[in-house]
Amino acid sequence: MPDGTTPLLLRQDSAAGATRLTLNRPDSRNALSFAMLGALLHALEEIAQDDAVRVVVLAAGGPVFCAGHDLREITAHRNDEDAGRGFYTAAMQRCAAVMQTIVALPQPVIAEVQGIATAAGCQLVASCDLAVASEAAKFCTPGVDIGLFCSTPAVALSRAVPAKPALEMLLTGQMVPAAEAQRIGLVNRVVPAAQLTEATTALAEQIAARSAHTVRLGKAAFHRQRNLPLDQAYAHCAAVMTDNLLAADAEEGIGAFLAKRSPVWQDR
Fold this sequence. Notes:
- The protein is α/β, with parallel strands linked by helices.
- It has two domains: 9-208, 2-enoyl-CoA Hydratase, Chain A, domain 1 (Alpha-Beta Complex); 212-259, Lyase 2-enoyl-coa Hydratase, Chain  A, domain 2 (Orthogonal Bundle).
- It has eleven helices and ten strands.
- It has a six-stranded mixed beta sheet, sandwiched between helices.
- The termini are far apart.
- The model has no long low-confidence stretch (mean pLDDT 97).
- It comes from Falsiroseomonas frigidaquae.
């Protein structure tokens, strides 16, 4: 357990506008304790209001990316008067809030996965917009092995990968290596462990170099249209694209392209 002085989450801002959030409970396999979920939620809410942040990298310290919910904490609350129901309800609600905040965050979020991501840790990866994984990374939703089906991780997983591979992960609990995770669409890129931070940083800075206004519009529209019928999706995105065309950065970007020069973004 943390000693009360070690921060649960580390934040590092770069001049390029890429902010790195690092889960900092390696001794607990970066488990998503109630406090860790709170720290994540607070950091994400701050970032949402920070125009200097153009992209977020979510990383983890130690050999494990995230082992999911803190099972020791969950077990301890079985001694509560209500056998833990109140705490479990609050924990699931806070976890859901974190995952939804990642999706709703104006800035793109890239998971940098250096090791194993299990259960709600896999959910965390699936909730991010993009993911870069080390060749050593592995993913699983093993709740079925301990009598606790990964129902909430299934929400994010089923939106990141097709139904059959998602259900196979959920029903078997088997570990999925990085290459297979890339094949089914859970991660975008797999790189050697020694190149992970470099590869993730390069991707983050590539996105950060774009118009922040355009990227924010695009991310929001992408997630919105996914849950709409086809005709409504086109109607929504057509309206977004019209607004985008009227923005200063679209005028600048199109003008720069036609003039064969680099654009100068105003982020509006």
